[in-house]
Amino acid sequence: MKCFSIFLVLFLATSVCLGSGLPPLEKEGTLVPTKLIYLSDTYQNIHEGTLIELGSDTKGNYVILDETIFYPQGGGQASDKGEIRIGSQILAIEHVLCRDGRVLHFTKSPIEELSPGAPVAMTIDMDLRLLNSSTHTAGHLLDGCVHSRFPALEAFRTEHFLHSMYVEFRGELASLGIRESTFRETVSSALVKAISESHEVRVTEVDWETFSGLFPALSDGIKRPSYRLIEIDSFSPIPCGGTHLRNLSELRLVELTKIVSKKGTTRVSYKVH
Ligand SMILES: [Zn+2]
Predict the structure, then answer these.
(1) What pTM did the predictor assign?
(2) What is the CA(38)–ligand 1 centre distance, in A?
(3) Total number of domains in the chain
(4) What is the DSSP letter of 71?
(5) Do residues 219 and 248 share a domain?
(6) Do both 154 and 218 map to the same domain?
(7) How far is the CA of 1 from the centre of ligand 1 (A)?
(8) What distance in angstroms lies between residue 76's CA and the mean position of ligand 1's atoms?
(9) Percent of the chain beyond pLDDT 70?
(10) How many CB atoms are located within 10 Å of the residue 241 CB?
(11) How much distance in Å is there from the Cα of 116 to the middle of ligand 1?
(12) Is 113 within a domain?
């Protein structure tokens, strides 16, 4: 059975922000989580909401909204950037993080004059969103292409940053009797084939019973309202809270760059064109 530890990291890292897209639950004495609009539409670049809280910490000034289209960094995917307009003031958003289910939008702009309850208008940098979504989708595709052709290789770590894209697998090519040239050729062909077949990147929501049946190792005992799964082609479904392209046809080419196979693992770096 496929090892999902790669996505365990992503899933648990983002699980408090991996909402169902449903309105946040109001509970006495707890912080209301931010509604994550980006989960339902990768391509939505503008949205309106309400300012909930202002603050600052070692990373700078931040604002918290009732809902957001900004993806907070996590699971190997970089955060979005963009702008938040509040009245006549425009905050340049440089970095976004999730803490305890709430999304913090960091800015170098002054926030002292702002007041909670004010309406806000958000705009994300769509070119950056699509780049991040491309590298993230390509990572899933690479994992599926490798594991479907070489089932002994199981992904356990990944990064989809623009400066560092790789999927790392448990298993070493030499000890599995796989020549690197064969691996590169086989996986490259599989990537080209999958992209040329224009497979849809499907997003589904399942309940806890279904999820824990599919991924017993990921069930941490906390029943969330729903679990988000990503499916590509006939590859195994993956729990994931990131942003993805709608269809593989939006990727032109995923190119394998560096393959390092040693000490029981194989790291496959890639580039997206
Ligand atoms: Zn994903």
Answers:
(1) 0.88
(2) 13
(3) 2
(4) P
(5) yes
(6) yes
(7) 20
(8) 9
(9) 88
(10) 26
(11) 33
(12) yes
Is residue 16 a part of any domain in this protein? Answer: no
Q: What is the CA(244)–ligand 1 centre distance, in A? A: 6
Distance 135 CA to ligand 1 centre (A): 10
- Ligand 1: distance of its center to the CA of 145 in Å? 15
Q: 238, 140 in Cβ contact below 8 A?
A: yes
Same domain, 139 and 120: no
Tabulate helix, strand, coil % of the chain (nearest 5). 25, 35, 35
**At a CB cut-off of 8 Å and minimum separation 6, what does 181 contact?**
none
User: Tens digit of pLDDT for each residue in 38-93?
Assistant: 999 999 999 999 999 999 999 999 999 999 999 999 989 999 999 999 999 999 99
Please calculate the CA angle 37-130-241 and round it to the nearest 5 degrees: 45
Cα of 243 to ligand 1 centre, how many Å? 6
Give the whole-angstrom CA distance, residue 77 versus residue 79.
Answer: 7
Q: How far is the CA of 227 from the centre of ligand 1 (A)?
A: 13
CA distance 137 to 72: 17
36: closest CA among 53, 51, 49?
A: 49
**Residue 50 contacts residue 119 (beta carbons within 8 Å):** yes
Query: Residue 73 is part of a domain; what is its CATH number?
Result: 2.40.30.130
Residues spanned by the domain of 229: 5-10+130-272
Decide if 95 is inside a domain. Answer: yes
